[in-house]
Design brief:
Blueprint lengths: L1 H16 L5 H9 L9 H29 L4 H27 L2 H20 L9 H19 L3
Helix pairs in contact: 3-4, 3-6, 4-5, 5-6
Length: about 150
């Protein structure tokens, strides 16, 4: 019975990810979290919001490192630090609350997280951002998360 339940829930992950813009990324993100094996679509959305928070927190850590190695980019790093704190402290919290109640607000928060990351990246002189890889990951995770949140509307 447990095997059948895991298979059924695995199908939910698979079927849900097929409706996102990046099936492979979606599967990778959700399958890396043990909660996905018993989650419904709301739960899958919450897992992805946690991934946004984790990546935002990782990026804030990289900004702190960049202050030491890229001092000439202090202004840009300050702006990114502010934007990623907004993602971690405001957008994520809004999404967590709203996904369980009014998913439209969760969608708005996830979209904002992607916009905040893009604005951060765009603030650097071309080719000088130490955060490009993390920003691109954030953008992709936000796209996948938004698609799943939209399923709840």
């Amino acid at each position: 019975m447990a095997m059948m339940m895991g298979t059924a829930m695995g199908n939910i992950v698979d079927q849900t990810c097929k409706q996102t813009p990046d099936y492979t990324l979606c599967l990778s993100l959700l399958n890396s979290d043990p909660r996905s094996s018993s989650a419904d679509v709301v739960g899958l959305g919450l897992i992805l919001v946690d991934k946004i928070k984790a990546l935002g927190t990782e990026t804030i850590g990289q900004i702190k490192v960049a202050y030491k190695t890229k001092a000439m980019l202090k202004r840009e790093l300050d702006e990114c630090n502010l934007r990623y704190k907004t993602i971690v402290e405001a957008d994520v919290n809004t999404a967590i609350i709203a996904i369980k109640g009014n998913p439209k607000f969760a969608e708005d928060a996830v979209v904002d997280a992607g916009i905040e990351a893009s604005i951060c990246e765009g603030g650097f002189p071309e080719g000088q951002s130490p955060l490009t890889d993390l920003t691109q990951k954030m953008d992709k995770i936000c796209d996948v998360t938004r698609a799943i949140v939209r399923m709840l509307l």
